[in-house]
Amino acid sequence: GGPRRLLLISNSTLHGGGYLGHCQQHIQSFLGQKVKRVLFIPYALHDRDAYARTAREKFESLGYGLDSIHESHDPVEAVRKSEAIFIGGGNTFRLLKALYDNSLIHEIRKRVLEDGIPYMGSSAGTNVATISINTTNDMPIVYPPSLKALGLVPFNINPHYLDPDIKTTHMGETREERIRQYHEEPNTPPVLGLREGTMLLVEGDKATLQGVTGARLFLRGKKPTEHEPGTDFSFLLTDSNPLSP
Description:
The chain is α/β, with parallel strands linked by helices.
């Protein structure tokens, strides 16, 4: 097997474009020529058939076949045979519960971390690639056995990261305040806020920010920092990353 290869996308659809349109060139250069078929995991949405149709259409237009895991009699076997995995967005709690229910957490980890097959996630699929889903934006509509996720990277991501709107009259908490509350708990890992249009490419021990909008990094006990596309985030992949001041 090769080193881990991950493409963690903030969002599937960017305003003004179609499904995965804003990142299709990233997807093609990430999957390359070797991958012929992608295993799609549509568990984050209720209508899995419709979701699989949307994903299949997109991937076929990029030159890849797509198999949806919900059409397989044996999901574990489907993961074991897969050349590449793509987990789409939707509700993170529903997605993680289905991954546990189908005994896929260990299998996906093994395929990605030991066998080196490419893993793509968008939105909820990016959330579950991290250490936990504690920093998702979704409602807990179902109850997974644990908030621990695939742990393909040792930190958290907040997809669809939103900056505070200075013109708004809405008095609810901002995304930044919620992440700060998470970091009030002891031993909480870094949180990378990925704005829409941004993605993190992980190749082995190297992590690079890609896309158009940039990201905000939150470390426990420190001021958040702003980062442009092209930023090297490899330090987040080391186990000795700065968890606390």
